[in-house]
Amino acid sequence: MSLCKSGTLNKKMADAIRFLSADAIExxxxxxxxxxxxxxxxxxxxxxxxxxxxxxxxxWFDRDRFVLSAGHGSMLLYSLFYLLGYKDIEIEDLKNFxxxxxxxxxxxxxxxxxxxxxxxxxxxxxxxxxxxMALAERMIAAKYGEDVCSHYTYVFAGDGCLxxxxxxxxxxxxxxxxxxxxxxxxDNNNITIDGRVDxxxxxxxxxxxxxxxxxxxxxxxxxxxxxxKAVVKAQKSSxxxxxxxxxxxxxxxxxxxxxxxCHGSPLGAEELAAMRKALNWSxxxxxxxxEVLGAWRDAGRRCVSAYKDWQARAKxxxxxxxxxxxxxxxxxxxxxxxxxxxxxxxxxxKVATRKASQMCLEAIVPHIPQIVGGSADLAASNLTLTKxxxxxxxxxxxGNNVMYGIREHAMAAIMNGMALHGGVIPFGGTFFVxxxxxxxxxxxxxxxxxxxxxVLTHDSIGVGEDGPTHQPxxxxxxxxxxxxxxxxxxxxxxxxxxxxxxxxxxxxKPSILALTRQGLPLLRASAEENLTAKxxxxxxxxxxxxxxxxxxxxxxxxxxxxxxxxxxxxxIDVAVVSMPCxxxxxxxxxxYQERVLGCAPRVAVEAGSKFGWEKYVGLDGDIIGMDGxxxxxxxxxxxxYFGITVDEVVDSVKNLIR
Length: 658
Hints:
Blueprint: H1 7-28, H2 34-38, H3 40-50, E1 65-68, H4 74-84, H5 91-95, H6 125-144, E2 153-157, H7 159-163, H8 166-176, E3 182-188, E4 191-192, E5 195-196, H9 205-211, E6 215-220, H10 224-235, E7 241-246, H11 269-278, H12 290-300, H13 304-316, H14 319-325, H15 335-347, E8 351-352, H16 353-364, E9 371-375, H17 379-382, E10 401-403, H18 408-421, E11 425-431, H19 439-448, E12 453-457, H20 475-480, E13 486-488, H21 493-505, E14 511-515, E15 519-520, E16 537-540, E17 548-552, H22 556-569, E18 574-578, H23 582-586, H24 590-597, E19 602-609, H25 614-617, E20 622-626, H26 635-641, H27 646-657
Parallel strand pairs: 1-2, 2-3, 3-7, 6-7, 9-10, 9-11, 11-12, 12-14, 13-14, 17-18, 17-19, 19-20
Antiparallel strand pairs: 4-5, 8-15, 16-18
Helix pairs in contact: 1-3, 1-4, 1-12, 3-10, 6-8, 6-18, 15-16, 15-21, 16-21, 18-19, 22-27
């Protein structure tokens, strides 16, 4: 695809990006003009001549994906959307840049504008999620054909993205899997907020990428002929490509270009006026000359016929492909999962919930074509593999399992990219304690509201001998305070299956399954209703008047049930509430919450931090949990050492009702 324009018009098309960006940042008195000014030529060439998009159908499945990993340069993206003719952005949106309620947020936010392919800003997240997008493209192409899935993933990344540690994990995965339709443009300007890059780093990025199996090219980022030639070469490569674009940050700003002064602050009225003179741009702020805007709108229409042709091919692929790219689950996908629950109840299956999760996956994976699993080198412990799992490789992308290696952070961000790409429901496993390495990407998943599922095993001091480095203590509490994420801690096979059902059916937020290493008894007597969907429920009601309520999660629910029996022997009648998901319980009507928790004194028991349980037990209640880190020793001994026992629960209840 090419659009031949005169050199002067091509330059003006790039300058339109520069001045719309600079004007919006100046009006807002806030923003980062340096990157949009420096990368405008690269953006103009890529978006006017190469990228496959259709502003009339911005979510076209086979469009090229574009990730602005250096999200602080968001005005470059917003300027492009306006120039190309996207329907959901007007000049007024540019004028409202960074204002409360504006679509044009300080960093690109997924869902604000149809052309934004992901939320970016935390550096390194964009380039890593782009690996997930590129991988999803190859996997879907391998399964359904390149006639309906064949597109590139383009990335603009800055020095900050490449310095963040996650980028090393990302480029290593991409090179290993030879994701040749991934093309990264490095804004190589040697400037960060604090000054020159070479004051903090002497990494040879070219050799670094080559060592990871990438194709590399070096160009003048302001020479549009070189830019175009580099894109053509990159598209023909058998490897992912880094195009190192030597640019001048703040290009065109007479006194601030090439310095950190234009990185994160408006240029100022005087500098902006001088820039207009230097670049011979006579248009008023937020105005684009008709010839230039017309050329951009023509560029936006380049792929209309290609889109229509694709629609016909996609329709001919049949129901499964169209359901997959449309995010629809197959009818009856959970039939085997429901059977599993019934069998577990009949046989009183006693297993660790990590094993229960694997049993669920055996019942799920064969029936959902878009589900893709993986683990950060812990599949044997997380139990994320099934009988139908097939690992993808550079030689065969037609699989449903990814070996991420010991790269938890990249795994989480790559899963974000796969979910954002569409056609994939990703899940990935590691030990719960190592979710600390994943948290920035998990937070982005929650912020974007996307379906990503985390299988996090070894969820408490029940890990035992591995000791405090491997025993998650504060993790449950920390995720429960993160907005828009579901944290499940199931107590048996039935609750685990219910949690998996909810995680898969919830398409607007990520889900965590915190699972045990140790075996747990089957506690549920019925699976007719998904009680986990309510977040908490009365597992065992008092036979008479409720004298106390014991609230528990996961492995401690069976402990609560034993305590109930002991208390009953002493004439004390209590109810046991299982609370597998606090977030879902908090969303229930107050009447339901009051009915479940009751008016009697309450005790909460969980082998984790006590933080947060106050809201459920009240000021007069008691919390049995952890006040510090764990220790190394057999799990049973640790529970006794830290006072998380049946007898401790019994004593707590007795003390409360005296």
